[in-house]
Amino acid sequence: MHSNHLLLEEPIRMASILEPSKSSFFPAMTKIVGTLGPKSRSVEVISGCLKAGMSVARFDFSLGDADYHQETLENLKASIKTTKKLCAVMLDTAGPELQVVNKSEQPISLKADATVTLTPDEGQEASSDVFPINFGGLSKAVKKGDTIFIGQYLFTGSETTSVWLEVDEVKGDDVVCVVKNSATLTGSLFTLHASQIHIDLPTLSDKDKEVISTWGAQNKIDFLSLSFTRHAEDVREACEFLSKLGDLGQTQIFAKIESVEGLTHFDEILQEADGIILSRGNLGIDLPPEKVFLFQKAAVHKCNMAGKPAVVTRVVDSMTDNLRPTRAEATDVANAVLDGTDAILLGAETLRGLYPIETISTVGRICAEAEKVFNQDLYFKKTVKFVGEPMTHLESIASSAVRAAIKVKASVIICFTSSGRAARLIAKYRPTMPVLSVVIPRLKTNQLKWSFTGAFEARQSLIVRGLFPMLADPRHPAESTNASNESVLKVALDHGKASGVVKSHDRVVICQKVGDASVVKIIELED
């Protein structure tokens, strides 16, 4: 793992770039979130996706009802059993998404310079002259000269399947627009995005709340992706809503930043959320194209310093229909990794794409190559400097564990944790070796029944770069005397050996609690 760690700043022998990469048990340290849908919901395809490296499955409720998603989820559970690969579940809310409803599902052709009227009267048929939309307040929100973008579900940015409109005049509740490019829209729903305009709709709609309290609660979702997060208050409201739903109090909330409004309140949102998803499709429409990369780099850096996962979307759109990504896309994935992204989220590419499994393995391979040249040394120094002194107890232990592991060229860091916080802090310092987070279940009771916690914590680390969870046997507590801990350690090391992460004579760094003290120790494996 470390012998082939290159630094781009040092002279590289060009031929060495072509040397085949060593295969490792973990395809990449960067995680992959796959959206399950029409092309990726059979047990066979989901199993392929898990083997290819997907560790979080996203269920997008903008499409399909609860029964449809339940069937997909049952298939996911079956696939997890057969492949023995852990996978977390993310529910993505529809949010205040504006849509054009095309009941006839006939393709609609629009010609440049023609006019089209957007009307809240949903009784009308969609045609090249009239688009019925699901929102009555558009005429109050826009003015002459504003830009509106309408495209297929999930903007491909391809100019033949999506259209730019410019508002010409507002007539009562209707908005008359001039078409800026010729295009043909297909399908039953087109997403409408008004650029840099505040849409006065709640972030968690009533439909979202219903889905979360029924489907979400019944399936104990690990992550909630909060679409169109615009203010920190949106996250607080979602958090309060989840806290009333039993087990969902443990669900992590990922704020999805999709607009300039979310961008301006980014710092406050980051404080409240458990992680951030940069929805670059919508951001690319709201921001001038030359500003997108800047926001991505700044946002990912802020997430890294806060120790919260950053997820980037829309990286290999062209793989929806093709077996290979474009050069720009391949470079884009690698740059996202070098920026410090924790996970790459695939939308249309796995949802309705023709090659869901190939897309995941291609993205995984690009991530693995980029990780080899990630400048860990510089990153470590920046993070330590940012955190400042005095460090908290946990932070100092975590950074020391990573430093020790790098100095002794350890092949893996093993961290015993019950809340998952210690392991996440270690991952924050981006060690070059995988972190095995051994989650020790805790027993809790509500006076009526016993239950173990730990499964949530283990699955939630599946979105953090470099963190690989395993659930320990609850009979071995994490914090007890050394003796029983040795047996958990043996299980963890056996797991490491079986998966090829560690072999004899390797060094391993262990981070654990013994009594009240946190201990970092280095062991060398015997034959």
What does this entry show, briefly?
By secondary structure, the chain is an alpha/beta fold. The strands form 5 sheets. An 8-stranded parallel beta barrel has the order 1-2-3-13-14-15-16-17, surrounded by 7 helices. One of its GO terms (molecular function) is pyruvate kinase activity.
Question: Could you walk me through the main structural features you see in this protein, from its secondary elements to its overall organization?
Answer:
The protein is globular and about 75 Å long. The mean pLDDT is 89. The strands form 5 sheets. The chain has an 8-stranded parallel barrel with strand order 1-2-3-13-14-15-16-17, surrounded by 7 helices. Strands 4-12-8-9-10-6-7 form a 7-stranded mixed β-sheet. A 5-stranded mixed β-sheet has the order 22-19-18-23-24, with helices on both faces. 44% of the residues are buried. Helix 10 (327-339) crosses helix 12. The protein has 3 domains: 25-96 and 202-372, Phosphoenolpyruvate-binding domains (TIM Barrel, Alpha-Beta Barrel), CATH 3.20.20.60; 98-195, Beta Barrel (M1 Pyruvate Kinase, Domain 3); 376-525, 3-Layer(aba) Sandwich (Pyruvate Kinase, Chain: A, domain 1). The chain has 527 residues and is an alpha/beta fold. The chain contains 17 helices and 24 strands.
